[in-house]
Amino acid sequence: MGFIDSLKHAWNVFKDPKSYEFRGNGSSGGGYGYHPNRPRFRYSNERSILASIFTRLGIDVAEADILHVQLDNEGRYLETRKSGLNYCLTVEPNIDQSPTHFRRDIVLTLCDEGEAVIVPVETTIDPESGSYDIKNLRVGKVVSYPRGSSEFVTIKVYNEQVGQEEQITVSKKLVAIVENPFYAVMNEPNSTLKRLIHKLNLLDAVDDQSSSGKLDLIIQLPYVVRSDARRQQAMQRRTDIENQLKGSKYGIAYTDGTEKVTQLNRPAENNLLKQIEYLTNLLYVQLGLTAEVMNGTADEATMLNYNNRTVKPFLTAIAESMKRKFLTRTAITQGQSIAFFRDAFSYVPLSQIAEIADKFTRNEILSSNEIRQGIGFKPSQDPKADQLRNSNMPQSALGIESTNEEQVSEDNQVQSMLDSLGTELDGVLKELENATA
């Protein structure tokens, strides 16, 4: 498709005539104190330790690369496709976000909302018209599922043309709706995460009350307060002491010698902290997290368990949702897919890299340049560095390791050459004998 045709047939989700009736009226006015596209947690989540958990999950999941790939007939990775979708996934999803930021935005939305919507805002043609390519991706939130039709969903997504979020109703076939794989643990009304949030809010309320500046004093008067007159007299006495404390520069007041003052501002005894500690540990177990993972001191076995039980389900849910919505059946039949890849060397200590590199190259799993790239070195210009070869074994003249059959064939060729040379030498000797005779 040429440049003019691309502009003519380009499609934008905010300009789709079918979504006009669902959009709110845009308004111009003052700007924002923060970027409106930045993912922000709900108020109850932002105040708690849960924001650190969400951020940790978002950073770790975003480390993996999600690519539009081509598979071979056996379903194995063959090459990365050069498409608009892959450009969005690897270079620029939209004008505001990098690929890593985009992936982190998906995970943070999943943790906070329970669902995230990956919206192809701009495509080459109308997605319902046929095969199309994606030019712009955004992360949205599910607002509601309209009644009367199971094919549409109302979402809130950032519109970069007007600089604010807008609600639109689109077909489910056009967007990838990703559900949090830990929805029952994090987003259900009575889940472990919601209970922990509730307890943390209660603890904050208790802390606010205990640090509100009240003195919590009890004044024992030298008379019995039972009649209305005595109560009024006691109230007047309390007011006098309050006025003394307010009007004093250093907060000092005096009492009668027969009055007794008792201080009560001590911490309230409750088991909120124990319950919070219990729920926090339970949430860590259910999410596959540990304190070592959070502070960066986890060993190899702990990180392997965390990556397989926590990080991988997020990546699988994202990749599968994008594959079934952004790739047609024809494309999938042709071997196209959405896959994620993680850098295996980033979790390996430096002391083990040499041993791993030796085993991988010796068993012809990776070439030398692939090992160099994995540990951050420039590729070597030697042609042998791009070959799968075992340098510890004898090599043929072409620099490729010979198999047993090839070695036998070479031995036969050498023997044939020796036999022919021997025959020629015998002929020369006979000619010399005849000439001497």
Characterise this structure.
This protein is α+β, with helices and mostly antiparallel strands and 437 residues long. The protein has a domain of 249 residues. Helices cover 45% and strands 15% of the residues. The chain contains 15 helices and eleven strands. Strands 1, 4, 5, 6, 7 and 8 form a six-stranded antiparallel β-sheet that branches. The protein has a three-stranded antiparallel β-sheet with strand order 3-2-11. Strands 9-10 form a two-stranded antiparallel sheet. The chain starts with a helix and ends with a helix.
Strand content bin: 15-25%
Share of residues in helices: 40-55%
Uncertain residue ranges: 20-29, 397-403
What structural category do the secondary elements indicate? alpha+beta
Supply the number of helical segments: 15
Global Rg: 36 Å
- Number of distinct beta strands: 11
**Taking all residues together, what is the mean pLDDT?**
80
The ordered string of helix (H) and strand (E) elements is HEHHEEHHEEEEEHHEHEHHHHEHHH
Tell the overall outline: elongated
Q: What is the rounded distance between the termini?
A: 87 Å
Main sheet: strands, sense, barrel? 6 strands, antiparallel
Per-chain topology:
Layout: H1 3-9, E1 11-12, H2 43-46, H3 50-62, E2 65-71, E3 77-80, H4 84-90, H5 99-113, E4 115-123, E5 134-144, E6 152-159, E7 164-171, E8 176-179, H6 183-186, H7 192-210, E9 217-220, H8 228-247, E10 260-263, H9 272-287, H10 291-295, H11 300-326, H12 329-333, E11 336-341, H13 350-362, H14 368-374, H15 404-436
Helix pairs in contact: 3-5, 7-9
